[in-house]
Amino acid sequence: MIRNKKVVVVLPAYNAEKTLKRTYQEIPFDIVDEVILVDDKSYDKTVQAAKELGIKHIILHNENRGYGANQKTCYKEALKLGADIIVMLHPDYQYNPKLIPSMVSLIANGLYPVVLGSRILGKGALKGGMPVYKYISNRVLTFIQNILLGAKLSEYHTGFRAYRSDVLCKINYENNSDDFIFDNQVLAQIHYANFEIAEITCPTKYASDSSSINLKRSVKYGFGVLITSLKYFLHKRTFLKFNLFKTEFLY
Fold first, then answer.
1. Alpha helices in 109-179 (DSSP H)
2. 116 with 198: CB under 8 angstroms?
3. pLDDT higher than threshold 70 for residue 82
4. What is the pLDDT of residues 36-57, one digit of tens each?
5. What's the Cα-to-Cα distance from 74 to each of 59, 167, 194, 208, rounded to whole Å?
6. Residues 6 or more apart from 91 whose CB is under 8 A from it?
7. Contact predicate 193/247, CB 8 Å
8. Is the overall model pTM greater than 0.70, yes or no?
9. Apex CA 150: angle with CA 145 and CA 156, to 5°?
10. Domains plus CATH for the chain?
């Protein structure tokens, strides 16, 4: 715990056998109370690796539902455990778990309800091996999103996030996509609900065994990002209304 706040780390896993151990061993268990791993029907030995590490909360999807669906399960289980602060961390070792204390302290001390680990702040993205085309597309999409959402984030595409539990209770994330666009939809919903978002610099590690999506899915994701931002813009100005931005306490 930190300031009597229960901290739960969720790991949305898919074929993370090779990187799970390195990720898990760097989680700061002096403040992290529970770890939940949700396996989205991996075809490698992710689940076996998780059991060998002693992870108590392992949830298995009986079919591959998608990255967004994985997170939906992660958050529901974390809330069931009574989490006050939920940290979503990719188990592919792209993000440094040692930053968890910094992220959750901003929430536990009442400064911000949401904290993102940004690969773009500073100069860590390209230095850490982010492909140039991904860096450029990240910057272009973020620029457009900031205009349409009226925000000033350095990136919307990070897989390292910390949330105060009531944030996830208020936004209607169950209505979101089961695919990769889920992350962007969540940030648009959070911004619409007027929760402030903080960012901290996060060094990035791109390696051959880190997860990545191919070019075709990247293009699909990019269009999904633009559509989500446009929906926000239209909804905010009451031109059209979308269920994506209905705020209600779900738990």
1. 124-127, 132-149, 165-170
2. yes
3. yes
4. 999 999 999 999 999 999 999 9
5. 9, 15, 23, 26
6. 11, 12, 13, 16, 19, 20, 23, 24, 37
7. yes
8. yes
9. 35
10. 7-245 (3.90.550.10)
CB atoms near residue 31 (< 10 Å) = 17
What is the C-alpha to C-alpha distance for residues 53 and 45, in angstroms, rounded to an integer?
12
**Closest C-alpha among 96, 69, 81, 112 to residue 159:** 96
- Tens of pLDDT, residues 85-131: 999 999 999 999 999 999 999 999 999 999 999 988 877 677 777 77
Chain position carrying tokens 């695919």: 179
The answer for residues whose C-beta is within 8 angstroms of residue 161's C-beta and 6 or more apart is 87, 88, 114, 115, 116, 117
Q: Is 99 exposed, middle or buried (0-12, 13-18, 19+ CB in 10 A)?
A: buried
Integer Cα distance of 198 and 190 in angstroms: 12
